[in-house]
Amino acid sequence: MNDTLDVAQDAVGVETSSVVADTTEYVGGIMATLADSVGDSIVGVLYAVIALIILLVMYKTTKNLIVRAMEEKHRTDAQVRQFTAMWKYAFMLTGVVVVLVSLSGSLAAMGLTVAFLSMILGWSLQRPVTGIAAWLMVMIKRPFKIGDRIIIQGVRGDVLEISPTHILLGEVGGTVGGEESSNRGILIPNAVLFDQMVINYAVSKETKYILDEVPVRVSYDSDYRFAESTLIASAREVTREIVEELGREPEVRAEFFDSGVLMRLRYQSIAVDRQKISTAIVAKIVEAFANSDRLGFAYPHSAVEYRMSEDASLPPVFREVDVANAGDSGKRNIK
Question: To bridge 213 with a disulfide, which of 253, 266, 318, 334 should be the other Cys (CB 3.0-4.6 Å)?
């Protein structure tokens, strides 16, 4: 019985091996026939298309996994968008390499093709290539990220998008005074990052606040100490959460000017809400000054004061003349 089973298993194994061999030979014959009929280039194109489809499926799958993992770690939307953009461009570069290999037929031919294309790009597309290098620098060094408020080439705005060729800024100011968003978009070429100074309002999460000030002109006849405490209390009330987080109280710096004392109220502020916070502080200060008789704003004006005094502040020469005139008038009156 066992001998019969062994013989049956051997027969099945031989039959299976022959079927696999026949199938492999058949597929190889089909590919050879296809190559002979349509040419090697068409086969390379088919390989490239299949590889691109596989890469697309891999990109979609890995992107969803990465986004889910970053959301579980409570990453910000700006960080998720920035990382997924890098992931997309990495797959695009891989797809380009796969297409070149498929169409070239070998790595050596691909190397020659890449070298030729690099030479052409270096001659005719110098600025775009510089922009891509600047984009890589931003992705690696991260001098700023999506959501930061920066100044490039004198243009102030919030970073909305970072692409390999341009940076999209949401303009701040422009159509209005101050630092309110104008809802206009500005495209900045990445290539200028190597030539221009870039100012970032908040370079990290720990330094997301900036120093701001509200200048207040106080009259000479105001109570200086009371004015100082009033300004500090107004700023502390508006920026209470920032003061509690940083442990830094508002402060006042003062200097003289023609009509009074210029008191500079300085405090920590959020870059994107700078205008809103300063406006709230100004409203508090105006209300406090209006409700107090010890405080007053200084403004350019002229004042004339008349004082009656028996001892006139005149030079000695004029005093002698006045005495002499008084004596002569007395003599005349006696005669």
Answer: 266
